[in-house]
Task: structure prediction
Amino acid sequence: MQHMPDNDFDNLFRDKFMNAEVEPSANLWANIEGQITTKRKRTFPLMWVAAASVAVVASVMMFTQSDEKVYLRNAATEVAAIQPAIEQPVSVVEVAQREEEAPAPIKVHAVANRSLAKREVPVAVIAQLIEEPKNINPSMQPSVPNEHLPIKRAEVKALDVVYSANVVPDANAMSNNNGEMLANLGNLTEGDAPEQAIEANKKGIRNMGDLINYVVEKVDKREKKLIKFNTDDDDNSSIIGLNIGFVKLNKKK
Amino acid sequence: MKVAKIYTLDELMEGCKAGNRQMQEMLYRQTASKMLAVCMRYAKDRMEAEDVLQMGYVKIFQKVREFKGEGSFEGWIRRIMVNTAIESYRKNLRTLNVVPIEDAYEQPSSSFDFSSLGMQDLMKVIQKLADGYRMVFNMYVIEGYSHKEIAETLGITEGASKSQLSRARAILQQEILKLEGFGYATHAG
Result:
């Protein structure tokens, strides 16, 4: 019988347990495997499916109802050229002076003459002229940003005859130009849509957000889509654009 | 003899980092029995130990990418097991059973014949200890924690850690003496 120091006692235990092994139950690996598998498995995102079907239904409804507003389709500079003429009832002399600065002096005379002669050009002509581009526009409408206010007939009516005479020839020339411009725009926008589609396809459809973007791309040809997701981040696609008529959201701009 | 190719632990570690299920299973097959022995020391019984083992491996597979190669991979696995066991103990912290010590200090220690005792016998003895004693004894004697570390980990004072350790030793010695006596008696038949 002798006293055993704590250290020796501890060492004896440590040695015994150093390489101790106890065989685990056979089914334990299956449990572990099940646990690490269920954590990885993702349930199919029902919310995404719901969002996608809403997007499809809404866009179909939207394009079956064609009560779209019609806007003048002039470029900003052209509008600027017309606007001062409309808003300031100028005398014939002033117009003539202004036109002299322009490179076509002959035309100026014509304008002056005609304005004197045809003092009573009916307002209806202007209305007609303004309506002309309306007829051309609707097809291009969705793809061009709506930056201008629509010009209503009421606004035009307020003009006096002198002024309207001045505008007539200009407007004529312009409407011709517009025809070309609009044709160009038409070409541009037609070329645009496939480009966007290609851009979307380049990245491939990696998640639900991509899929919805792709479907919406096919159905909604406007620049501001019915719904648009940012799919840069791996997992969490976030809405960056929304356009349901009265609700518009676009985080890009 | 196992027929399947034996991978080194480092190879298995790389496989686990890549999320390879086969490599994960092989790592488990190669290390689980050692790790269960660790868990058994901290647990009251085998069932509790296997629960801890399962939690520990799930943690290992989730965290394996964080292993940067400081120390051995097996040491890292063992540390996770011990931490899981301590966590589990703290989570269902049972009240410390106050065990009557029966003048353990007075009793002279005999020279133990450990060779006649198997690891399993010692395991049973350790498992019989009150939870707090078992924790301190395992952490200090087998894992080599300092009293300061034990105090911080278990939320007790250093003094409590020291006194629980010496009580644990005393109880273990008593139990082993009993076991040796019983052992000879029962093994004879």
